[in-house]
Specification:
Largest sheet: none
Helix content: 55-70%
Oligomer: single chain
Shape: elongated
Distance between the termini: 55 Å
Length: 193
């Protein structure tokens, strides 16, 4: 119907398609030039290092994104698999005393620096009680996690999951990587396959 001449700019009469790629389709000339540029091997050592650095940067950005979103494909080997995913979710869904460890240790340290002997003794008591509660909470975590893993993943190897869970539970929730995907108290799905 309406024919455009060579010098006439394109009009934006048609609305952008929902879910489209958001950019115009490249011409054949542009696509072939881009393919040649990708296929071109670096000739000098400087070009090789630049290409390796770019590939490393892209790879690490995918890993960082996966750590934030929990996407299984790009996670490091220690975080992959349904057993590790369940372990992460199990630790993240419970409120543990270990998360309160850092604030209590800071309080005991401040009390230890004060000049009063009573404050120092109280700080030492707080420190001792904190450490004992961490040990007790770690033991509860071990027994409950082993029972849940045996129920949900019968016959699968669960080697190293307790240490993985303990190290994750010792971090404050906002600092954990991969980021927590469940809220405290949230019920976990029955299947993790």
């Amino acid at each position: 119907m309406f024919r455009r001449t060579k010098n006439e700019p394109p009009t934006a009469s048609a609305p952008a398609k929902e879910g489209g790629k958001g950019r115009p389709t490249p011409t054949r000339k542009e696509a072939e030039a881009a393919a040649r540029a990708r296929a071109r091997t670096p000739r000098t050592r400087k070009e090789q290092l630049a290409a390796q650095r770019a590939a490393r940067g892209e790879s690490s950005s995918k890993v960082r994104e996966a750590m934030r979103t929990g996407e299984e494909r790009y996670l490091p080997a220690r975080d992959r698999g349904p057993v590790r995913r369940f372990t992460r979710d199990y630790v993240d869904s419970r409120l543990s005393f270990i998360e309160l460890m850092v604030p209590l240790l800071v309080v005991s340290m401040i009390l230890g620096w004060s000049g009063s002997q009573a404050a120092v003794d109280f700080g030492n008591t707080v420190l001792f009680v904190t450490l004992m509660m961490i040990v007790v909470d770690g033991l509860f975590l071990r027994f409950r996690l082993r029972r849940e893993l045996a129920r949900r993943f019968p016959g699968e190897s669960t080697k190293g999951t307790y240490l993985y869970a303990l190290m994750r539970s010792m971090q404050m929730k906002f600092m954990r990587l991969p980021k927590a995907q469940v809220k405290i108290g949230q019920r976990l799905p029955e299947t993790y396959r």
